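Recall that a protein's primary structure is simply its ordered list of amino acids. Everything else, from secondary elements to tertiary packing, is in principle encoded there. The following example makes that idea concrete.
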Amino acid sequence: MSLLMVTSVMFAVGLFMFLLPPIPIYLTSGIVLVNSGLPIFGLVGAISFTVAFAIILKIFACVVQQKLIGEKLSDSVSIRQAVSVNSGPIRAAKLVLSEKKLTLAKVAFLVGGPDWPTSVLCGIMRVDVLPIILGTLPVILIILPTVLTGAFLFLKSLPVLHDGTPPYPWAEAAGAVCVMSSAAIQICCMGGAAIFIERTMTERATELEQLDIDEDVQDADDSASQETLKFYEINSWEKISFSSKFFLWLALLFMIVSVHIVLIFGSRCFVKYELTYSIQEHLDGNVLNFVKPLGWTAIVLFFLSYFFISIFNNSAGKAVDLIISEDGVFA
């Protein structure tokens, strides 16, 4: 495929992947785009192209998540309640992110925070997007070593030369250094974000107290607290029926077995597969071949556990709703 086509596909897939908690898109870009760009730009040029691509993708994803998702959801009380807009850490984050100037605390939060929650939270809090973009640009400190890690993985996987030597004998060692570097930088950014939020809560407590409380969310939190107390009161182990206990025991049993199968017999559950592998070559053209029979057993048990716990939660929730409607708990 052409570099333009590969770049377009990676952009579309990458934008979708930024909606997920784990973001391996930088590593994958280092493998795929460097591979496609190597014949055109050379090694340094292909890596530079990939780093630029990753930065543009990151900024574009942040804008989409903030403006098209976060701000659109900000009118929903349930969404604002779900992100705990009245909690101390979120109010501290709002105070930091709302500042016009570019501070170290803002950069640490934007770079070290998880991609999807951070960008959407900025939209829910309706902070200006331009300062957020500027504060996000130092993410290159994470992007560069991660892209290099992917690039060196690709270079290490290249076939050996005619004399039996690898074309890039230093790639494996360089990749190990980049892995450690990217992990260290990521940990420092995440730790810095947590430290600055904690420091804001203690050193700027007066400013936090002056921020308005979301009254609608406060009312929803009060109602939810009462409903939670009623839930545990009605559904204590001594009060629930035998069938409810049976479903809970099954859910617990299946989940324990499922988790331990994967933890103890992981190599018997899934085929070894690396990012540089090909589905056609290493999985015989069928992605489902990645899962072995024991792995399918663990997956089935997992979903059975989820099914039984859902039955219990549905029944317990209906019991709480019935009591609330009869007693008028929130009247």
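The CA atoms of residues 273 and 282 lie 8 Å apart. The radius of gyration is 25 Å.
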